[in-house]
Amino acid sequence: MGSSTATQSSSSYDLSFKILLIGDSGVGKSSLLLSFISNAVDDITPTIGVDFKIKTLTVGGKRLKLTIWDTAGQEKFRTLTSSYFRGAQGIILVYDVTRRDTFTNLSDVWAKEVELYCTNEDCVKMLVGNKVDRESERAVSREEGVALAKELGSLFLECSAKTRANVEQCFEELTLKIMEVPSLLEEGSTSGKKNILIQKQQQQQTTQSLSSCCS
Amino acid sequence: MVGLDVIRTDRTLVFYEKQENLSKLWDILAVYAWFDKEVSYCQGMSDLCSPMIILLDDEADAFWCFERMMKRLRKNFRATGNSVGVEAQLSNLASITQVIDPKLHQHLETLGGGNYVFAFRMLMVMFRREFSFADSLYLWEMMWSLEYDPELFFLYEEDPDLTAENSGRAKVKSIRQYGKYERENMRSGGKDAEAPLPISVFLVASVLKDKSAKLTEARGLDEVVKILNNITGNLDARKACSSAMKLHKKYLKKAANTNR
User: Fold this and answer.
1) Distance from CA of B147 to the nearest CA of A (A)
2) Sign of CA dihedral A42, A46, A48, A52
3) What is the CATH number of the domain that holds A80?
4) What membrane topology does the annotation report for this chain (chain A) (predicted)?
5) Fold agreement between B1-81 and B84-259
6) Is A194 domain-assigned?
7) Closest C-alpha to A148, from A132, A162, A127
8) Mean pLDDT of chain A
9) What's the half-sphere exposure (Cβ side, CA atoms, 13 Å) at A56?
10) A13: phi > 0 → left, psi -120 to 50 → alpha, else beta; which?
11) CATH class of domain segment(s) B1-81
């Protein structure tokens, strides 16, 4: 019975998008995600391989289901995590404003990775500078961030997973932008429709199996 | 890199509130990276190293225990060209699943998960994230003794009264088999190109098999990952081992049949 209630709650959305978090190890990808999902950031263990979280929210009057994939940052795992680029409508490139190398690696490494593995040409990118709560340790200026975002043709925000400043805005702005792109909107709504169809079938199946076991 | 991970490994344990213990973790991982330049440091190793420091007071002892453990596992962490060693284990997992649960394998392929990356973490950190701290250590011990002698686990599982009665015989038998298996391994390892599969791969296969009904209903890779994430903390080491052993036997039988 537990599964049927779960499908009901996940069916209450109009659009479904896949979003990917990438960037160097320790920049706060998992923290950013956890901060967005559960308002709390605990001590987080390093991500091994891939993980994901689902968040439903309402943006621009539409109920959205976001499947947000979180990846391991270490270089060795790149070929493994690259298979998760497929079908993503949005990609968030994260760096740590207190560690300059994580910023330079975005253009040197991660942006190229996106070009190479992202199957979706219209895919919306967003550059995010995390850990702005540690202002005194800042090593990358806001202006530099803006400039790189321009160069990459991506959105830009600075945030703090710890204080939750700008965290929600980050995901909202990205999804709003995705919804402006007709091809992505189409992808998001077909996966939404498919989802409802499958659920109807499943509901029929469960009622059938229920009646058969009663008889 | 080591420093980044040391401060976020097992932080829920009181043990690592002490700076002194964190330093040990840093030392051992840093020395290992220098010691084994080919592997250096790779994420996941801090999860494997942490228990050694908790179990062994002496830092040098902990290092050498970790080093021995890495002798078994370093292949997983070694990067060659564009791939990590663990990918070989993932493809082993794929062929095992194909044999013991073809329907599930087919389904996973259709979902685009034929590379089994979703099982990556289980193999990489030897189920440390899936089991509790104590359970994962229990599991490790069992795995290692199993790999030494596949019958040992069943000896432990026998009725305690029964084993007490036949303890003399059972002991002799187990020692003899233990040597035999080792010798057999060395013999076949020299000739056969294929090294024997580690039990960890069968453990993952047993987890997949156990969740097979749910997994074959999954509509996307996200659901596959979700189902596997839900097992975290709910796994029984003993059960997992015995079903891995059963699968191993089944696999060997089927593989032998197809070779005939």
Assistant:
1) 25
2) positive
3) 3.40.50.300
4) Lipid-anchor
5) no
6) no
7) A127
8) 85
9) 10
10) beta
11) mainly alpha
First and final CA of chain B: distance in angstroms?
50
A198, HSE (Cβ side, Cα atoms, 13 Å)? 14
What range does the domain containing A179 cover? 15-184
Q: Which contiguous run of DSSP H or E holds residue A71?
A: strand A62-71
Q: Retrieve residue B10's tokens.
A: 């097992």
Residue A91 counted as domain residue = yes
pLDDT band of B84, cuts 50, 70, 90 = confident
Q: Does a structural domain hold residue A2?
A: no
Name residue B165's amino acid.
E
For the segment A98-143, what is each residue's pLDDT rounded down to a tens digit? 999 999 999 999 999 999 888 888 999 999 999 999 999 999 999 9
**8 A C-beta contact, residue B246 and residue B95:** no
Copy the structure tokens of residue B138.
């229990």
- List C-alpha distances in Å: A26 to A20, A29, A97, A165, B23: 16, 7, 12, 19, 19
Write down the pLDDT at residue B142: 82
CATH number for the domain whose boundaries are B84-259: 1.10.472
Buried b (16+ CB within 10 A) or exposed e, B210-223: ebbeebeebebbbb
Selection from B259, B124, B257 nearest residue B198 by Cα: B124
Record: contact A46-B46, CB cut-off 8 A: yes
pTM: 0.82
User: Alpha-carbon distance B3 to B41, whole Å?
Assistant: 11
**In chain A, residues 11-50 whose CB comes closer than 8 Å to chain B:** 25-26, 43-50
Q: Which chain B residue has its CA at the smallest distance from A19's CA? A: B222
Pull the structure tokens for residue B134.
Answer: 């104590």
Residues in B touching A187 (Cβ below 8 Å): none
Nearest residue of B to residue A3, measured between CA atoms: B214
- Quote the CA–CA distance of B161 and B167 in Å, as a whole number: 10
Domain count along chain A: 1
